[in-house]
Amino acid sequence: YGMPDTSPANRSMAKAFKMILGDGTLDASQFLFDHNGVTFSCEKFGRTSSGTIEILEPRLLNGAQTITTISRYLADHEDDSDLRRAKDRLKNVRVLAKVISECTDQFVVGVTINNNRQTPIQPWNLRANDMIQLRLQDQFRKLGIFYERQERSFEGHTPEELEELGIMEGKALGLLKLAQTFLASEGEIDKMRSMRTAFEDDKIYELMFTDSRLNADARKIVLCYKIQERLARITREIVDRGSNKYAFLPKARLLLFSLMCQAVLNNPEVETWAAECGTDMSISADWAKTMYELASAKCRPILSELIALPKYAEKVSLERYDFLRTHAAYRESMKLAEARHGWVMKKLR
Predict the structure, then answer these.
(1) How high is the pLDDT of residue 283?
(2) For the chain, what is the largest distance between any 2 Cα atoms, rounded to a whole number of angstroms?
(3) How many angstroms separate the CA atoms of 252 and 176, rounded?
(4) pLDDT tens-digit profile of 227-268?
(5) What is the DSSP-derived secondary structure letter of residue 28?
(6) DSSP secondary structure letter of residue 232
(7) Is 198 within 8 Å of 205 (Cβ atoms)?
(8) Checking DSSP bridges between strand 38-42 and strand 59-62, what pairing results, if any?
(9) Which of 53, 192, 297, 345 has the greatest count of CB atoms below 10 A from its CB?
(10) Residue 111 CA, distance from chain mean position
(11) Distances in Å between the alpha carbon of 221 and those of 20, 249, 273, 281, 322?
């Protein structure tokens, strides 16, 4: 979905459309030479018996700014008396178009990245059309939850469109936070520290969004996803219980997130929680209380034991808590969790 109309690229195109469609001071044919074009991928591309071109299931890889800007222009001028004249002029505006089909997902990702270098795009937005993202969207839709794999797409739908899609929730589940949830659930704290790198590195991306994620109970994914929505508050509340004793906790927030995922997935009540709290995006008072109790009663003692281990004594004495942001610290924590609570690592896959 397009960036705000205040972005430089959109301001420039809005000005061009005004000059072409509004006052006619710019010839429509010039747009072709000033514009980089648009790129689509599709399931099928071919010529019909009547000589027209048929494109089945097109997906826009580059050109969102063009499409959203012209859409905004027409919407802003729908009450103008000369809108019909503007639409007639619009028919003369041409852009170069590329359509790719019958290619691998890797090829599509490469085309998407390389065709969006002129406008700063976050790397997770370039993955939005991957097949795994589309299939995850279908999984969450079954729960009535909108999966915002494309940034700003939730706000781009009208209430009527969301209702037609079967979306009952007023809040979306986001791609970036979902990726962080998957990494947290497996203790990949090192990788969570740079999500840009995680989405740019194919191996890490495939770890986050492996096809086996589709085998996970989507309700349990939602339960773990909600943890990060309250993580900062939970951290503050524990620190408030002992500002000196737990002063290190803000530096262990990602580790706390990972341990809380395991606290949820290892709990005998997880199926009940999934049924009651895993089918929507709201955080009830009961679930907020449950999350805090898990953090305080189950995870807090583990973290206290962790920083008391002899191997970390020197770092703790120097107040160097960078080790808490590593996968190694997670592994040590899970050993302690197994001994204390009988936990085993459970994955969302």
Answers:
(1) 95
(2) 79
(3) 20
(4) 999 999 999 999 988 878 899 999 999 999 999 999 999 999
(5) T
(6) H
(7) yes
(8) antiparallel
(9) 192
(10) 20
(11) 49, 24, 12, 11, 28
